[in-house]
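B., you asked whether I could sanity-check this one before it goes into the benchmark set. Here's the sequence:
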Amino acid sequence: MTADAPAQRPLAHGTRILLTTAAAVIVFTGIWFARDILGPAAVGAVITIIAAPVYAPLLRRGWPSWLASTAVVAVGWLILALLALLLFVASAQFVRMLPDYADEFQATAKAVQEQLASWGLSDTASDAASSVLSPDVLLGFAASVADAVLGIAVAFFFIFGYVIFMAGDAARFARLGVVFGAGEPDGIGRRYFQGVRRYYVVNATFGAIVAVLDGLLLWALGIPIPLVWAILAFVTNFVPNIGFVLGVIPPAVLALVVGGWPLALTVLLAYCAINVVLQVLVQPKFVSDAVDLSLTLSFFSVVFWAFVIGPVGAILSIPLTLLVRALLIEPDARATALRRLTGNAAPPPAPAVAVTAASARSEAPEASADTPELPPKQT
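And here's what the prediction gave me:
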């Protein structure tokens, strides 16, 4: 640059925000169009992250790298097979149960319509409320559930492939010591992977406890197919903040059908007692220690990612939000306020230090026995 050249003026703060927002809209619009492709890839990545800790201990025991990677793939496939089995059993029992209770659903829908009409609600409102319990609507919902399970089975085929290739790449990245780039500050990649694993371990543990307690409760109350609702409680436990609501509505409606309002209220109160204690008072402490996300961002991430990549986005919302933060916010030392807004209390990354010849020599890896020694340079 010559002395008389004008100095380049930086963009105004508001302009940078507008450009960043516009770029984000374009990127997430592209993700929305490619959600059928990116959804299975995201699931495969999360499964690989969960199964990856198997790799290092096997290497320390003397296993070859390819065999340790195969063990990671086997663990990932085992997790997927277990999830597929749970979904298949739950959907099959649900579809088989509906025709047996068609008359009860119809009688309950009529009773709800008459009750709402007696309270002075309009015919449109009462018809809309009672139509939810209509046998035709429920049978159509059962058919959609069966189609969704078939779609998930097809997606699992691609997820199996993703797990194979991602496990191989993970082994290669582990040897290179590079995840998010050569200049990764303050172990961002390591913290991200550990946070994702802790999040799913905590949710799976509490989800299993809640599922067992809810299933035993529904079995004791005589609610049909308690195993299905226990599986539903386990799966919805992975949806932050609103998972409890999604898991309690179907068994409460079924309790209304088979036992009336007293049984439905009993189910609601018992679910609240179990889930509020575990999911509201105990679990958030462990989850916050694992991911450091604010409650507002956790709730918004469920809605946002479910809109962007579909229902699977609700389950993957926390890992996807953590990934965005790890890639775009944590490496930026100037984004301290944004990190705090997301709930991350980690210190900002250290500023980049110019690499001198002396520091390069001091940080260079020592030559191993496998590295050939170069002859001295002739002057």
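One thing to flag: Residues 41 and 338 are 28 Å apart (CA to CA). Otherwise nothing jumped out at me.
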